[in-house]
Specification:
Layout lengths: L3 E6 L10 H9 L2 E5 H4 L9 E5 L4 H13 L3 E6 L8 H10 L8 E5 L4 H9 E2 L5 E5 L7 H13 L3 E5 L8 H12 L6 E6 L7 E6 L12 E5 L5 E3 L2 E3 L6
Parallel strand pairs: 1-4, 1-5, 2-3, 2-4, 6-13, 7-8
Antiparallel strand pairs: 8-11, 9-10, 9-11, 12-13
The structure holds S-adenosyl-L-homocysteine.
Length: 244
Amino acid sequence: MTGTLTIAGLGPGDAALVTPEVSAALADATDVLGYAPYVARVPAREGLRLHPSDNRQELQRAGEALKLAAEGRSVVIVSSGDPGVFAMAAAVFEALEAAPEMQDLTIRVLPGVTAMLAAAARAGAPLGHDFCAINLSDNLKPWELIEKRLRLATEADFAIAIYNPRSASRPEGFARALDVLKEAGCGDRAIIFAHAVTTPKERIETLRLADARPEMADMATLVIIGNSATRRVGRWVYAPRRAS
Ligand code: SAH
């Protein structure tokens, strides 16, 4: 098989945060697949076929990408941020597991700057000590599991990065998540709402968790909750390097 499949992360938004490795892969591609707003970030050029698709069609998109690569094309699937963080890389390997005849294909995963790192950099260093990342979407996992992970993350005193906090189709989950965190005694912790980081619509807001309102988050927001030792210095938020 002469085709290749590259799974690439475009970073959080700013073109300056697309890695040179990803830019080179896009320059060599014959086909680019992905969720339409991400494909729209890829510079158009003659001979490049763009295949934008809907958000929920990940497995179908992964299967199509494998098929094009098996036909000999140079295929790039794009994700925002990093492709391995709540994104396309896992979907491609899921599709690959179901297609043994494709398993000799050349596949590469190219990392990108994931939203939590771009958001943390804006706020200071809230992920400077141990932390975890939780996807609040319950499309692919039961809500009970999300609550359990939130509770255990606070018990372990991790700082927590929350992806996909709130969408029009899931308005109540994030409100419930805030309640779980308050019930766990995290009301005094710092919470950071990082909206559309590295884009012209960027907005960063830090407050006490007890004062946070569910409407402060939407699908373009990455939420970071500090651990119990997290401190504020001026406009900065950081997790001390020593655990308390
Ligand atoms: N693979 C992506 C995450 C996809 S899940 C990554 O590594 O960043 C989509 C979620 O990522 C959004 O709901 C939001 O929580 C977060 N996100 C992506 N880009 C963002 C940005 N520029 N600013 C803030 N949050 C962002």
